[in-house]
From TrEMBL:
Listed name of the protein: FadR family transcriptional regulator
GO molecular function list: DNA binding; DNA-binding transcription factor activity
Transmembrane residue ranges: none
Entry keyword annotation includes Protein biosynthesis: no
Keyword Ribonucleoprotein in record: no
Source organism (scientific name): Devosia litorisediminis
Length: 255
């Protein structure tokens, strides 16, 4: 009986690990954005980072994997991890504390789910579906023209595509995590408004590509267009910062 009561604690500990890794991810991200870990420079060693944050190496490595996936950190064999680029500080102004790792995870989920929904929408849509998507696209055009954030219109465009798939489970999946999705969309569009390049126009070009593929009943093109759009949105969270030349790590590794 004693063995039975001791077992539940192990899954609970494992459940807590990703949350702790997310916290470390955001602490390192903040240090990169503020310049504490400068672009092009080597990060402190794993031992130093573990000591700084009071964590184990497995937790640290989870955080570093996410930073690498976000193209903020790169590893050089035998040399350690280096800061690849520094995102714009406005990320910290717009994103709630503790939300950035979750926002990136939301994009990963959406890329998988909504790409398939777009492909099915290309095959199954009717005229009413097209009219709804076109209306959302027109609303987004107006947002770009007037410099509005347009989070609600963006959400409507993606929901309209999911609805056109003819499978309500795609809509249900998005509805179940609507708060996280809208937060991610709004953050991305706010960052676009803050960018001198006015990235909203580029985002709209991606929406048009999705709409055209669905209109043409080209399922593979719709799948690719939607997946590319959402993956680009994930990357845009960290656009606008300080890039580093491709050969920087090799030079720094010689120090």
């Amino acid at each position: 009986m004693m063995e039975q009561t001791s077992q539940p604690s192990e899954p609970a500990a494992r459940t807590g690990e990703p949350k702790l890794a997310d916290q470390v991810y955001e602490k390192i991200l903040t240090s990169i954005i503020t310049g504490d870990f400068p672009a092009g420079e080597k990060l402190p060693t794993e031992m130093e980072l573990c000591s700084r944050y009071g964590i184990s190496r497995p937790i640290l490595r989870q955080a570093l994997r996410q930073l690498k996936a976000d193209e903020l950190v790169v590893s050089r064999q035998g040399s350690g991890s280096f800061v690849k680029r520094r995102p714009d500080g406005v990320v910290l102004n717009f994103a709630p504390v503790g939300s950035i790792a979750d926002i990136q995870r939301t994009f990963e989920f959406r890329a998988a789910i909504e790409a398939e929904a777009a492909a099915l929408a290309a095959e199954r849509h009717d005229q009413k579906d097209l009219e709804r998507i076109r209306a959302a696209l027109a609303a987004l055009d107006e947002c770009v023209r007037t410099g509005q954030v347009g989070g609600a219109a963006d959400e409507e465009f993606h929901m309209a595509v999911c609805s056109a798939s003819g499978n309500h489970y795609f809509e249900n999946a998005r509805t179940s995590m609507k708060a996280q999705i809208v937060l991610a969309m709004t953050l991305n569009r706010q960052l676009s408004l803050a960018s001198p390049e006015q990235r909203l126009a580029k985002v709209q070009t991606e929406h048009v590509r999705i709409f055209k593929a669905i209109t043409d009943r080209n399922a593979p093109a719709a799948y690719s267009a939607m997946r590319d759009h959402i993956e680009s949105a994930r990357r845009r969270i960290f656009d606008g910062g300080v890039p580093v030349a491709k050969d920087w790590a090799g030079a720094n590794s010689q120090r």
